[in-house]
Amino acid sequence: MSIDRREFLAGTCALAAGSIFGAGRSAFAAVQKPLGDGSVTALSDGYMSFPPNFMYPAVADETLDALLARHNLPTDRMEPPCNLTLFRSGERTVLFDVGGGSQFLPTTGKLPEALDAIDLAPQDVTDIIFTHAHPDHLWGLLDDFDELFFSDANYYISEPEWQFWTDPETVNNVRDDQQGLAVGSKRRLEALADRITLFQPESEILSGIYAHDTSGHTPGHCSFELNNGTDQLLVLGDALAHPFITFEHPEWPFAQDVDAEHAIITRKRLLDFVSSRQMDLMGYHLPYPGFGRAERNDTAYRFVTK
Ligand SMILES: [Zn+2]
Questions:
Q1: Among residues of the chain, what percentage have pLDDT more than 90?
Q2: Ligand 1 centre from 256 Cα, in Å?
Q3: Where exactly are the structural domains of the chain?
Q4: Record: fold of 3-305
């Protein structure tokens, strides 16, 4: 890549980091910050685009529209960005999730360009840890020839997440509109069968990386606490997915949650946990690049970019 293009990207990142939504449109970009003696980098895989009532069908349209309008967001589309986290420390280069790949949505699957933008080759990624197995997080696993895109990495996913998506009955038990994704995720996980490490939630997976049980969105969804020196960051995955709805109304059912009731309990517990500890957060679908904190006031939580 030429220096000019790198400088252009750096400028684009600075702008993207300053805006609140629609920033996912910066298709390939990277924002890096230190974490102890290492670093974390937000890598954009692109963005998704859905009507709001597709995401929150249980919420009255007027109620949903009013909240979005109050935050100057469009009421006809939601365009959540997809922000991957790269954690580098010592010999390790750890990537959380792998993006949507080329067979999910035309607006996702930009991770290869983001890696190119930071001059990181796929074979230099030592470890890949999945928050969960939804397509926007997993389907970038295979390239167009069905080969592993990250050929040399060690792979990790929670045992309950693996059991759910590889169970032949799951495709019959999910909603009709989820069957295609269940088939696709099962096929991709099976490509990892002989090389993936399964871990239990609420355990340390690698040195300085602890898996918190944030199930509900999916049965084995985990968020990962990174500790390096005195610095700390929680990689949320989809446990807190919208910068306003999730923080103001964690009790609103989210259509993509496999277990809506359990996901609501998890969101409330997690918001209390991260706000009381003032933890730095990284959200997969929070405004690009996804870094921030949860603040609590008398009646609700608020996402603050950081
Ligand atoms: Zn997601």
A1: 87
A2: 9
A3: 3-305
A4: Metallo-beta-lactamase; Chain A (3.60.15)
